[in-house]
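Order emerges. One example.
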Amino acid sequence: MITREGKICSFCGEPGSKDLQLVGGLGAQICVSCVDDFHAILHDPEEMAARKGTFPWDTMSDAELLATLPQIMASAEQNTAFAHEWVDLLRERSISWAEIGRTLGVSRQAAWERFARKGGDKTHTA
């Protein structure tokens, strides 16, 4: 079952909670605070102009870049976990490993090796 429980904001890295609601899809999650921040930027022409063509990492120190790496990895791991949950959902709907592999551009066996749960996909074989 796909849930938001235990997820983090893909933008600031804060864990979701009763006080920090997360919304999103396709693995990425965003907290209300980040939505508000981005909304304010998008609706302020001067702020948009100041940010045009720049990236946050352009002005970050080496220490800031290093400190951000664990957040990037946590977000990537969250997306990988979501892909596994999505494949579980497909398998619950009796979508074949062959169809999953075809969709991903890999063989049935490669899809099974990547996504089959170690406890086994007991109802469906590769």
